[in-house]
Structure formats: C-alpha cells, structure tokens
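Take a minute with the sequence and fold tokens given here and flag any structure token that looks odd. Thanks in advance.
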Amino acid sequence: MLGLLLVPAQATAATQEGEDAASVQEEDDQGEGQLDEGLTEPGRRAIEELSQQELEDQGFVFESTITQRERAHATVFAMTAGAVVPGAGHWHLDDSRTALALVATEISALALLSTGAFLSLSPTGRPAIDDRRREMFFLGTGLLGTRRIVDIVGTAYRDELGIPRSTSRRVGWGVQAGYEYLRPPDLSMRHLSSVGGVFRTRHMSLEAGTAQELGWGMSDYHAEGRWFPLVGTDPTNRFGVGLRGRFLHYRLDEPFQRADAAFFVEGAFNMGRLFTHLDQMEGGMLVGYGVEGRRRIDDEQDDQWTPLTQEATLIPMRMYLAFNFIDPLRLEVSLQRGMRHWLEPVPSRIGVPSLDVTYRSADRLDLLFSSIFGTGTGVGAGLRFWFGE
C-alpha cells in the first residue's frame, strides 16, 4: 500500500513542477511582450514603410543615378569641348539660359582681346589710349577664365544640394602667420616669413602685415582699408572703396626702396542672384589708381639714398571667383595686375593668376595654402586664428 501511495505523490509533484515552469515561462513571455511594447514608440513607423514624399518632407534627398550619370558626362564635356564651345556643359544639360549667358561672356571677352590686339598693331599715337590695351587684355582674359570655371563648376554642382555653403570669414578679427617660397627673376630672394592681422565688420575691413626674407635681405610692410557703404541682405553682395599702401626695403643684390599707394573701388556679388544653381559662388572685381616711388643707393656716395621719385603710374586690377568645392575647403581663383607682386612682369600685359585654398579645420582655426604663376612660380602656406565671428 505504501508503494501504491508513493506513485500518485510523485506524479503530483511532477505535475506541480510542470505547472510552475509553465507559469514562469508565461510570465517571461508576458514580460518580453511588455518590454517590446515599451521599446516601440507609438506613432512611429519603420523607414521602409514611409513613402518617398514623406521622406522628402523629413529632409531626405533623392537623386536618380541616371541624373548623376548625365551630370558627370556633362562635366567631362564642359572640361573638354567647353574649351571651344562656350557653355558646353550647360548646353548638354539643356540649360540654355546659363549657356547663352556664357556665350555672351565669351563674345565680350573676344571683343576686348581683339580691341587690345588692334591697339597693339595699329596704335593711335596717344599714350592715354594705346596703353589701355593692357587693361583690355586683362579683362578679356579674366572673362574667358570666368566663363570656363562657371561652366565646369556650374555643371558639376547642378543638383538639389548645389554648391556647398560659403565658409568665408565675414566679421570678426584674426591673426595669421605663414611661409612663402618665391623665385623672382634677377633677384636672390627665395624664402619669406609673414605675419598679419585683419579686422572685419559688415561694412568695413582693415588689414596690415609684414613679410621678411629669412636672411633679413628684404622687409615688406603693407596696410589696407576698405569701406562698403552698399551691402545687401546677403553680405556677399557689396560695393565699396578702399586705400592701400606699401613700403619695402630690398637689401640683396642692388638694394632699393619702394613705396606704393593706391585708391580703388571694389564690388562683389553672389552669382546665385543670376543663376540659382550658382548660389554661394562669389564673383568680384577691383579697379584702382595708384603711384609708385623708388630710390636707390647713390653710385657716387656710398650708403646715401637718392631722393624718392615717382617712377610709375599704377592701375591695380583684380578679378576673382570664390566658392567651397567641399564643406570645409574654400577655393579662390584670381587674376591680378598692377598689384606689384614680386612675380608680376613689368609691364604686365595680362596679369598673373593665383590660386588660394582655405581649409576651415575648426571654429577658430584656418589652414591657408596659396600659389601664384607669373615670371616663375610661388607657393605658400600658413595658419590663421579667428575670433569674434
């Protein structure tokens, strides 16, 4: 009887254990379900469940691979055939408005170059007119370069994202230091160190700096002030006047001292005001009038300087395009003449092109790189610390 009684007792215990395990499993399942419910936010759907319109409303940008391929082909077309056909890239994308504007720019540039060539071959005998051929060569060449860059860049960035936002420093103050390697003809100077400072507001800009040859063979000092009474809601659009002065003392080879002073007018604008897809591309022009004085060591009296006399009349000119080709990198391409750069030939018929790249690596720090191409090639690099922006 005892054995018979043990069987149901064991069965009852096993049954009880099974019920307890089932109860625990059920509680775990309920707990996991409650946990899942807690992790799922009400009213939110997975991204796969949203339509394209809903995603675009939330800021997503869609672009067809076919469109990307067409734009890539147009960019290559602008870089190759664009050397001959004005606006080739924009014609390829069926943007006739921009393409026609580039054709008009090409015609204007060729007209200026042709007029300059005519004055060179058939001078009028009036220096005031004949000497203007150099400015015409400068303007014509600058417009040709502008047309090419606008066609290539405007084609490459023709999408909904457009040209990256400008990282130009508009307001505040900064200090910078750098190094330059120059190789001017007939001069022994090679290595320069430079320091400078700049202060900018919405309507004003003040700059000053110095460059020194590392062996103390040359000292160069300059100061510049600009005032922009006309500034648009977009500060890129501005027009104003300025003054600049410079004094240098060259001690190598045949020593000399030179002083320059110039007055100029300057204007810049956001090209997106003319063509939407070129928003954030800045174009600018500077034209001025100045004088240059020079003196040398007297041949008859050692260590005595001749009087400072005016040796030249200057017409400084500068044309440039600036834009960010990626978010932190800003590129500025310019053509200048009459600015008395060490590598600018005298007299300069066309001018010297330069390329400047600014890498905005932090809120207050910029890396600066530059190169210029004239009677030789110069390169430079530097750091700029910016405050008050």
Residues 1-18, 31-40 have pLDDT under 50 and may be disordered. Residues 307 and 324 are 48 Å apart (CA to CA). The radius of gyration is 34 Å.
